User: Fold this.
Amino acid sequence: LVSTLKSIGYEAFRYCTKLKTIRIPDGVTSIDRGLFGGCSSLVSVKLPATLAAIPNEMFYACRSLSSIQIPSTVRLTQTRDLKEEDFRLKIGELQPVDIEIIKEMLE
Assistant:
């Protein structure tokens, strides 16, 4: 992805089944919903600190996802996808935390 990118549209990577890892570049401030829906091979995602919030259905049906790096500045505005998937999260520079702890923080 180009470094000048500011936003990513609705379901931009939907069903990109060959996508395994992605780093959203710094400068991206908004992502529309359903970004990685159905990306069944996606294993790792790194989000930028410039992102305002995680949109709804961002990780829907991402069955292989095992790591998401979320800077502490990013708002977790929805939790449905995070609750459904079985993976660990890394928030900012903190060590990995179990999804159960994240669910408690968001409820």
About this structure: Residues 84-99 have pLDDT under 50 and may be disordered. The longest strand covers residues 67-70.
